[in-house]
Amino acid sequence: MVSDLDIYRSAQLMIDQHGEDASVHAAMRADELLDQGYREGADVWLRVIDAIKIMELKEAQGAVH
Questions:
Q1: In the predicted model, what is the mean pLDDT of residues 8-33?
Q2: What is the pTM (predicted TM-score) of this model?
Q3: Rounded to an integer, what distance in angstroms lies between the CA atom of residue 38 and that of residue 29?
Q4: Distance between CA 41 and CA 31 in Å, rounded?
């Protein structure tokens, strides 16, 4: 089981590397793993996508205030 901390670290790396396209790149990786039959790995990337969305939302809300 991958920890939440590791998920958020991965999400931050994806944002740093891909900016606004971070969730797209994470989804492509999840699809690759699913195509290879690696469901557990794909599930991890789905968690990363969720974390990216949360982090982007928090950042957008912070920019407003």
A1: 98
A2: 0.91
A3: 11
A4: 10
